[in-house]
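User: Let's play a game. I give you a shape written as tokens, and you guess the letters that built it. Ready? Here's round one.
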């Protein structure tokens, strides 16, 4: 709608009208510096991308560093500079079937607190000191199906007006010819001699002289039955995230919630780290209370528990015993056979690369421990299909520069097709670092790339992730340094074949020294920063098109879209991402009263009729400065500079 069209309601009483519309939309900055990265972890969800914000967050979700993989070490280093999207890997016997995961969850099943002992029939009476039985003295008691017996409870008493508890107990047992009555804490208690559900005691009203009300609180007649020994049943099952880790790291218990009697709390104790103790409060077995139902509440509140199952047939007690710790067993890591097919995965099964399908923030995707040609080709295809990612990898360990060139081109010992895409990048050089145990080790370049990428992105998404502005940190050396004077020719070999080397300069230290994509055809898209810029434009602008769909296909709408785009490109130009740009949006087009479209450059009436609107964005991306030329000329003392420079001398007068 044009801003000149005021929606005034011309009915009713005279009044002023205030209308608010939002014409202040702008294209916001995207989250910067994040990568999608796959690898083996101690624990955590498998087949799911998790946005990890810090080293501590990674530790809580995915666990400790492990002997089987350097992946946790690398990711934790990368997290020092930016969040990362992390996917934990395990082996599938068929990557196209998520049900064939070989990793197995440890579980713990708690039984309810059903009484495991048989109990006799029992009637608990009143607290008694003495009872006046000078008038009423009888009760009528039946054991099981025996004949009811009228008992004179004052029989044998020294004074019927003051009958003691002991005298009442003696009188009942004598009349019943069995030990039925006893005193407990000053109370009269009747209890069958045998335990079990077949035992019963019945109090009924005697024919005369009834003293029952003075001895018991129950409504007469009253029958009590015994119980058989109960068999505990499975009550709650906790299922941990896959792996053997849970077998010896966690235990759990339930306790009564201190505020609400209808709820209980679940405590999960990490045996190796007290700081990872978890408490999920206010749980219930009542599935009608969805917010507090244990099957929903525990997995949503725990880093350790994948699934919680209420095994009871009803929504009520019996719960497991409060305060009893339950342990886990049965977990398997599922690492045997992990290979490129697990990293590649399957679109339908949402395994491997495809767990990142819903991630929109990150551009790089990297698997630091899968450096096979098949994986890189698959990752490139994934990035190309999406259009908004770049697949990063590196030459396999222990390759020399010539071997890395062969790997990149699929030559000599390698038979795979050469890599040729602007959606891919390849690095050379394995950093030597000190791990957290103080051991020197050669590792993937991923963490150091992630560091440079995050820092360069903060300056601008179009900034090359290379050079001395972003030196590599925490690096002791390289497995092969093409930055040394003797090896710079090998560095040229790598760069000429679009392999980005890590180097250590003699006095300036370590850095990434190129930012090439794997596109063979010479163009600006051979530079990563150009790819990053176009992906930024795609990610920033494309979502906005949804807000313009189903709007009138009219020049008013076209002008609004131009007003959205122009400040965005002005900023890119102002910050040096572009050397120039031109937007053709038909913002000056209009319809005449005769229904003729005027001043439209791109759009035709037929296309407008079809619901089509087109705009054109022309940009000149800023290239990278790679070669700095300096010419020094030693001239004779009698030589005049202006004689050498001619008319150009006037420009250089100082």
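Assistant: Ready! My guess for every position:
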């Amino acid at each position: 709608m044009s801003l000149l069209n005021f929606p005034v309601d011309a009915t009713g009483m005279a009044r002023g009208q205030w209308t608010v519309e939002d014409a202040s939309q702008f294209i916001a900055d995207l989250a910067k510096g994040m990568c999608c990265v796959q690898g083996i972890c101690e624990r955590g969800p498998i087949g799911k991308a998790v946005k990890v914000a810090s080293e501590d967050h990674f530790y809580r979700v995915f666990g400790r560093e492990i002997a089987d993989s350097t992946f946790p070490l690398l990711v934790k280093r990368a997290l020092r500079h930016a969040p990362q999207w992390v996917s934990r890997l395990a082996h599938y016997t068929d990557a196209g079937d998520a049900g064939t995961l070989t990793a197995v969850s440890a579980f713990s099943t708690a039984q309810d607190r059903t009484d495991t002992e048989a109990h006799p029939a029992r009637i608990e009476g009143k607290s008694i000191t003495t009872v006046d039985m000078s008038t009423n003295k009888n009760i009528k008691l039946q054991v099981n199906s025996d004949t009811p017996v009228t008992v004179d409870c004052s029989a044998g008493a020294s004074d019927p007006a003051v009958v003691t508890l002991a005298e009442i107990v003696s009188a009942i047992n004598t009349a019943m010819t069995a030990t039925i009555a006893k005193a407990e804490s000053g109370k009269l208690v009747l209890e069958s001699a045998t335990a079990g559900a077949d035992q019963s005691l019945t109090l009924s009203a005697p024919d005369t002289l009834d003293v029952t009300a003075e001895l018991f609180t129950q409504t007469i007649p009253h029958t009590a039955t015994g119980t058989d020994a109960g068999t505990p049943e499975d009550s709650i099952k906790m299922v941990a995230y896959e792996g053997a880790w849970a077998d010896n790291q966690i235990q759990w218990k339930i306790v009564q919630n201190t505020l609400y009697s209808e709820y209980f709390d679940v405590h999960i104790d990490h045996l190796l780290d007290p700081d990872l103790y978890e408490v999920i409060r206010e749980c219930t077995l009542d599935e009608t209370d969805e917010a507090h139902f244990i099957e929903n509440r525990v997995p949503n509140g725990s880093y350790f528990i994948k699934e919680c199952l209420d095994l009871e047939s009803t929504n009520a007690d019996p719960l497991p015993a409060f305060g009893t710790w339950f342990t886990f067993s049965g977990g398997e890591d599922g690492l045997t056979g992990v290979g490129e097919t697990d990293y590649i995965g399957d679109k339908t099964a949402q395994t491997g690369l495809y767990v990142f399908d819903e991630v929109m923030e990150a551009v790089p995707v990297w698997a630091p421990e899968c450096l096979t040609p098949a994986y890189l080709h698959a990752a490139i295809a994934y990035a190309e299909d999406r259009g908004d990612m770049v697949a990063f990898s590196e030459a396999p360990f222990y390759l020399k520069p010539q071997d890395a060139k062969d790997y990149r081109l699929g030559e000599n010992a390698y038979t795979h097709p050469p890599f040729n895409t602007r959606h891919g990048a390849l690095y050379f050089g394995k950093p030597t670092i000190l791990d957290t145990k103080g051991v020197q080790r050669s590792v993937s370049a991923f963490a150091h790339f992630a560091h440079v990428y995050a820092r360069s992105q903060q300056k601008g998404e179009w900034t090359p992730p290379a050079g001395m502005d972003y030196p590599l940190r925490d690096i002791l050396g390289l497995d092969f340094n093409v930055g040394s004077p003797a090896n710079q020719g090998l560095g040229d070999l790598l760069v000429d074949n679009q392999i980005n080397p890590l180097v250590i300069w003699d006095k300036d230290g370590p850095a990434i020294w190129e930012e090439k994509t794997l596109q063979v055809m010479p163009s600006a898209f051979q530079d990563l920063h150009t790819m990053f810029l176009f992906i930024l434009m795609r990610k920033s602008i494309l979502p906005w098109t949804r807000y313009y769909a189903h709007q009138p296909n009219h020049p008013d709408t076209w002008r609004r879209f131009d007003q959205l785009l122009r400040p965005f490109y002005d900023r890119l130009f102002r910050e040096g991402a572009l050397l120039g740009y031109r937007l053709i949006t038909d913002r000056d087009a209009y319809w005449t009263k005769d229904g003729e479209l005027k001043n439209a450059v791109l759009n035709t009436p037929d296309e407008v009729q079809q619901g089509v609107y087109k705009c054109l964005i022309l940009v000149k991306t800023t290239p990278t400065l790679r070669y700095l030329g300096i010419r020094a000329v030693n001239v004779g003392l009698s030589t005049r500079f202006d004689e050498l420079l001619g008319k150009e001398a006037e420009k250089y007068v100082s």
